[in-house]
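Troubleshooting log. The previous run stalled partway through. Resubmitting the same four chains, unchanged.
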Amino acid sequence: MNVKLKGLVQEIEPLLVQYRRNFHKYPEAGWTEFRTAAKITEILLELGYSVKLGADAVSKSDMLGVPPEEELKIHMNRAVKQGANPELVKEMEGGLTGIIAELNCGEGPTVALRFDMDANDIDEPKEEKHRPFREGFSSENPGVMHACGHDGHAAIGLGVARMIVKIKDLLQGKIRLIFQPGEEGVRGAKAMVARGAADGVDYILGAHIGFQATKNRQLICGTGHFLATSKLDVSFTGIPAHAGAAPEEGHNALLAAACAALNLHAISRHGKGSTRITVGTLNAGQARNVIPPHAEMKIETRGETTEINEYMVNSVRDIIAGAAKMYGVDYEIKIVGETISGESSPELITKVKDIAQGTGLFTELIDYVSFGASEDFTAFMTTVQKNGGQGTYMMIGSQLASGHHDYYFDFDEATLACSVELLLEIVVNLIGKCQEDRIINIT
Amino acid sequence: MNVKLKGLVQEIEPLLVQYRRNFHKYPEAGWTEFRTAAKITEILLELGYSVKLGADAVSKSDMLGVPPEEELKIHMNRAVKQGANPELVKEMEGGLTGIIAELNCGEGPTVALRFDMDANDIDEPKEEKHRPFREGFSSENPGVMHACGHDGHAAIGLGVARMIVKIKDLLQGKIRLIFQPGEEGVRGAKAMVARGAADGVDYILGAHIGFQATKNRQLICGTGHFLATSKLDVSFTGIPAHAGAAPEEGHNALLAAACAALNLHAISRHGKGSTRITVGTLNAGQARNVIPPHAEMKIETRGETTEINEYMVNSVRDIIAGAAKMYGVDYEIKIVGETISGESSPELITKVKDIAQGTGLFTELIDYVSFGASEDFTAFMTTVQKNGGQGTYMMIGSQLASGHHDYYFDFDEATLACSVELLLEIVVNLIGKCQEDRIINIT
Amino acid sequence: MNVKLKGLVQEIEPLLVQYRRNFHKYPEAGWTEFRTAAKITEILLELGYSVKLGADAVSKSDMLGVPPEEELKIHMNRAVKQGANPELVKEMEGGLTGIIAELNCGEGPTVALRFDMDANDIDEPKEEKHRPFREGFSSENPGVMHACGHDGHAAIGLGVARMIVKIKDLLQGKIRLIFQPGEEGVRGAKAMVARGAADGVDYILGAHIGFQATKNRQLICGTGHFLATSKLDVSFTGIPAHAGAAPEEGHNALLAAACAALNLHAISRHGKGSTRITVGTLNAGQARNVIPPHAEMKIETRGETTEINEYMVNSVRDIIAGAAKMYGVDYEIKIVGETISGESSPELITKVKDIAQGTGLFTELIDYVSFGASEDFTAFMTTVQKNGGQGTYMMIGSQLASGHHDYYFDFDEATLACSVELLLEIVVNLIGKCQEDRIINIT
Amino acid sequence: MNVKLKGLVQEIEPLLVQYRRNFHKYPEAGWTEFRTAAKITEILLELGYSVKLGADAVSKSDMLGVPPEEELKIHMNRAVKQGANPELVKEMEGGLTGIIAELNCGEGPTVALRFDMDANDIDEPKEEKHRPFREGFSSENPGVMHACGHDGHAAIGLGVARMIVKIKDLLQGKIRLIFQPGEEGVRGAKAMVARGAADGVDYILGAHIGFQATKNRQLICGTGHFLATSKLDVSFTGIPAHAGAAPEEGHNALLAAACAALNLHAISRHGKGSTRITVGTLNAGQARNVIPPHAEMKIETRGETTEINEYMVNSVRDIIAGAAKMYGVDYEIKIVGETISGESSPELITKVKDIAQGTGLFTELIDYVSFGASEDFTAFMTTVQKNGGQGTYMMIGSQLASGHHDYYFDFDEATLACSVELLLEIVVNLIGKCQEDRIINIT
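Second attempt completed without errors. Output:
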């Protein structure tokens, strides 16, 4: 079976590259993936998947870090201009750009695969040394770039979708494909989980191209030590006053923010695990001689566990409230991103490793890495695990032109077909009809 | 008349010195003036004054900065051992050590004179170079010393009391003598004013030996620019925790206090007048490796006007509350001293200057000084002024051994008789029967 | 003579309005007054004044708050496009836009008049209710507006220049006209004083339209209690680091700035006079999850005296250095504006009042107001006073459409001729040939 | 052999209890263990050990947190009064209270055992419920109490010393017994290591009664994850000034300390391991109305590794220096305790476990615990390990009356004999002549 599958996948390799480059050319940041999602939806529908889009896939009230309404409108128009189906875009109004697609292949367990689609707020370089530019698929959208590989993830998702249909008869169970918006800033998973994306799932798998697997033909079968994290936007609003004539009439938002920033960093370490707190930006005031009436901060907390991160966020809330009280200013705290901690299931890691070994695709198999960073795949995985299922997050090796989120980021497109084949093998092994001999003939 | 009065006063000069040295030997800090007040009361009663003591002179609920009950008890016992009348001491239970004495000399205006009686929390030096020690009248009460001259004030008060009785027939009006506890830390005046000490008064006079009048035979006739001030004791109470094992379980009172201290000093300047804020002491924590569960601060605010000081105190309250909120600790703010701003009445200043000139007692007469500090005489004076009366606060020149509140402080006792004579002349001129010729014969 | 002068002045009233509106239409912020200064220079040269421009009028090394070279270049081009003489503009390269013009009218004292020329960084409203827009002379330069009246000051200066020539024969002494750039932010005077603008002057006069004189025909003859002030731009430069992976590798400029901001506001009050400190703006950081590598603050100090302001600036320097040390970051402190305190000369105030009375121009004459704000006219005035001369700063009444620096600011143009006449009368009285009868015939 | 040894040990059990109670009755805090060390030295000499005391055992310049000279003098006198040999006490002048004793039992490896001797700054309760009081051996030294079990450690050390001599002929190697002062506050080990206490050692063993082994007959064979730590005393010295009259003349030590405290807690977390920072106490100022001229803080840092702790201490130094600069105050930083991180040697843990198993003394054997706290045994152990040797730190189970450092702390004295036997078995197994059959007859 391996050979045959491999052959099939290789057949679609050009298509995978084409998908990837198309997504790369029209990158879309979190909650604005109107074109990407419309394209994916069209293909999934064509392939016969039952597709939930918009409000059926995303719980509006659980979306985090959504751009303002006007900005979303602009992106909807842009997407249509860039070839998106207007009716599908309309369905995603408000940024509801998530997709849940399902294919029922008979009675059996449900396997979910999750792919993220969003790009980064980075200007792609127009330089010869940068392959996407040199080969003509660099970003058409100023200030936005696929610098993390999610263009590849989305392409892999479509490749898997296409192949699954081909081997449908060999399976007995359900395939669920989840295309998630807003992974950057951990903004999107929560709203899809809240809409049921992880319900009824027995196995969930996610993967990232590259990261700690920076060589081709390398596979990390499971990832853990995902940090829980929260992203908070805080603003203080005071009252301006002339700094010379009547400073006492002012309510100083800048000082409230400065005081908060210091004390936030002084939040006590936690005895049960590591924490992080960063006030990444602080902008306050309007003129040298005016008591500053407003201040804004972008804050990030992390915790080794969800509980520890909650401790951090609660401490942040107290400090912001206290600083506002001190200076008689109003404040607002917005959670614009948040995810929990997580661990891949050891049993599934073992299974993945066995399967991967069988494929002959990899020269190096690593059981597990500690991530020490955040990914909102944990929201899906933890839900599945709580319901008795298993999940794992893999890293699929790829040689990188530069690190993730760097503007020279690029990966080796050979990873695309390799990833599709791996995922198919995993699916076949998890819900295939005859798992023993693992020989499957498809024509 | 002047000559005659002078003669009389000189007669009692030895008595004044004896009073002063007696008070100096048994100094008593604010609200513990049991012995001093008992001695004064006995003499006033003997002289025929109608005397209000204890709850009749002091409003319990308006007392500021009162020592704890047990400490007061200890002082009551000490006072009795040091010769105080036990019954009078009993009447002052709870620290009600103020005295309002009145002598009715017929229909006419009421003139009030105010004298403060309390000593400082200072250890008096046992050194030959220090006259009170050399001449055998230095403090018998460890940790307490008359280092501001209130022993002299009390002696002057008794001298005036004694002389007024002698010249009673020359007067038409009422004389009220107010002996105030707890002037240090501006703690006592409020409670006496609340009990009516300043009611019905037409003229009120207060005086301080020395201060800006540091030469004998110098008189400052009026003082103004008294700063309003508040003295606050602030405590924070958190929860201790092991600093290594579980720091997150602590609620850090030290950090709340440190944060408060910084932000208190950052209270905005006021456009309408000068302000002061000082965290004079901060003591927090119990051990190097325990999250500090308690912290205490002694704070002082000042304002050019009562309103400005109120702005300061309100800001202090907000900052303390905010700092407590930040660190999840409890707090308590105690006002342990407070007084308002004030200005001597220009008309009375002029009158006093004229009278002083007539006495020939002084070689230098200064109309007015700006105080730039605080004295709770303002509580009496402002009440009198609000009711249509006049008040002034004088400084009576005296060569000092060292500055006020220094432990080598001592004044020239010649000032005592001079002060008594000045005050008598003022009284005679304000409510004397024949003011025109100012010649009064007393025998 | 008064009448005659008045007649003459009224004659040129239309010209004054024309000048003012021309300057208003092409407003130029501090050190970019290329067009304004070129226009003024051309007229002064035409009138026969000896004119110093560029490096002869401004000491380059003493200029404060100068825009970057490229920005200056852009403004030079703009100015030429807007009609400035290219050669004169060339002479002012680097922003040296001050002018010192002199007319020698024989042996006698030197009278200097100072006019400021710069506009504000404000967008002028394009609204019918705003007269400059309605009558077609609102700003052609986006983001810049004459919202303080310096357009009027410059016009008055030209009016005076023109009239002085007419009455030249009546005078015996020197007239010096100083046109100053960059008064906003107190940036320009220092560099002109350093170049000798105030040297050899016996009388110096400055004036502001409006301010505390908000009614037509009102004159404030002298101003004092000018606060010394410094404007500081502070930047911190640290090292960025990933906030999750290696926060300890960062050197946090945001925290250095936040810490500095708090402690700056906590600089101790001063016992000898009032102070101000304001961190008006703070901008720091680049992304939520990056240890912030840079921070910038705009700071302002004030002091009741130059010494007190120096105390403030020295304290600022210590705090900035300390905060940088704390966080291992570099810092830079730039003084972008600064001026000393000052007081008008009482004798000159009296003279001005007498002269003003004689003119019949005013219905309300006020001797003196306390300014409580800052104006770098003090740099000229104090130099003159130190050299034995006299100076005063007047406020010439004018009904205002809205307060200074508000974008609806506008003044009553009747003030222009009134001001010219007042200044001429003052000149004639200070260095006129026959001062006794004050009757001068000019034809 | 086990049985025989056991019998012998049981024989001396009463002696062990007697030792322990004697030490308990005369507890001595760090660097004042004059009596304890003199008693131990006398016994060791008597037993035939070669003993180094005073300057031969402790490097004066490496002692941390030594009390002032006068205090040491008082303790020397006290010790003599409490029965210490005056000549030995004299040898320990300056607090050099460490002992290195050695017994040469032939050619072979060197085994070192380390025992700490110091008590805690705690008042022992005089209550019936507290056994040491009830049974008459509670502290005679006010404010000092053995509340951590070091009295037991010292007694065990003497027990081992005595037994080793008995089985001397069975051994081939060297025994070194290290009695360490000042373990509390991690003050003593460094100075003994600097004097060579750990040089030439092949195996080093340390043990603590109780801690995480709180049941009798429980043994933890190895401990790791010792945190590196530093204890710092910081003082700031400024200049006092009257808070009302001339606050600007003060240099505010309280604000420097408050600012430092906040920023110390804001030291960035470390990406490579956990950290701790605690300002445990802060005491500043002298009076409410005086700018505070002095402030003192007790600080503790910890790091998962020695490098991380160094990062913390360096950050502390920068922040203290910066805060002092801010407020123009002087500062002093004293390291009063410090130790490095450490890990027990896995091979030795395994050996200890095997040996312990063979003894039959324990019902529960735990390989390893993570300590997460600090012990300066690491200074010895790490030195031995660097030189190619092995070390381990054990916890020997004992039922406790209350937790360590609590004033009701007490342990089960049955632990004493059990510990002595365990240590002897370890020694015999490490350097015994015939290790195979482990049957040794001693009579």
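Takeaways: Residues 229-339 of chain C form a domain with the Alpha-Beta Plaits fold (CATH 3.30.70.360). The longest strand of chain C covers residues 228-237.
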